[in-house]
Specification:
alpha/beta, four-stranded mixed β-sheet, 144 residues, 4 helices, single chain
């Protein structure tokens, strides 16, 4: 999808943890998918830890309007980096709902049931993020 730009409201910050030797590749890949972030995301902080964990991890901070994207070695080494980015972006799409449910659980769910509810919420969020990844990948192939 060449020519697609991310929102002008999205500030992308490449953290010093990203090795200089990987910055060009990482920046290119982030720019290729940044347009998919929802409007609430005003700042994207990109970090690199080089670990063997999956491909990437995202920490959406809905209340503060930013996400931290932690890239792992697989983001550079694996061919499915785009699908992994779609999945992580899916987490940011659903974060406003997850944040709302978290507040409801804290206010209304008895203490002895909270862990069960949070576990089920985490499963549902993962499923939604994966559905979003599949959808984004399918849409992307229509335009390539």
């Amino acid at each position: 999808m060449s020519g697609v730009q991310h929102s002008p409201n999205l500030k992308i910050e490449i953290d010093e943890s990203v090795p200089k030797s990987l910055r060009r590749t990482i920046t290119s890949r982030i720019n290729a998918t940044a347009h998919l972030f929802p409007g609430w995301v005003q700042k994207l902080v990109v970090r690199y830890d080089g670990s063997d964990r999956d491909v990437a991890t995202i920490k959406p901070e809905y209340e503060y309007r930013f996400v931290v994207l932690i890239l792992h070695r697989g983001f550079i080494e694996q061919d499915d980096w785009r699908e992994s980015m779609h999945h992580e972006i899916g987490h940011s799409l659903f974060r406003p709902y997850v944040a709302l449910v978290d507040r409801i659980v804290e206010a209304f769910v008895p203490e002895n049931s909270k862990q069960f509810v949070y576990d089920e919420l985490a499963k549902a969020e993962e499923a939604c993020a994966e559905d979003m990844a599949v959808f984004a990948t399918k849409i992307g192939t229509l335009h390539s």
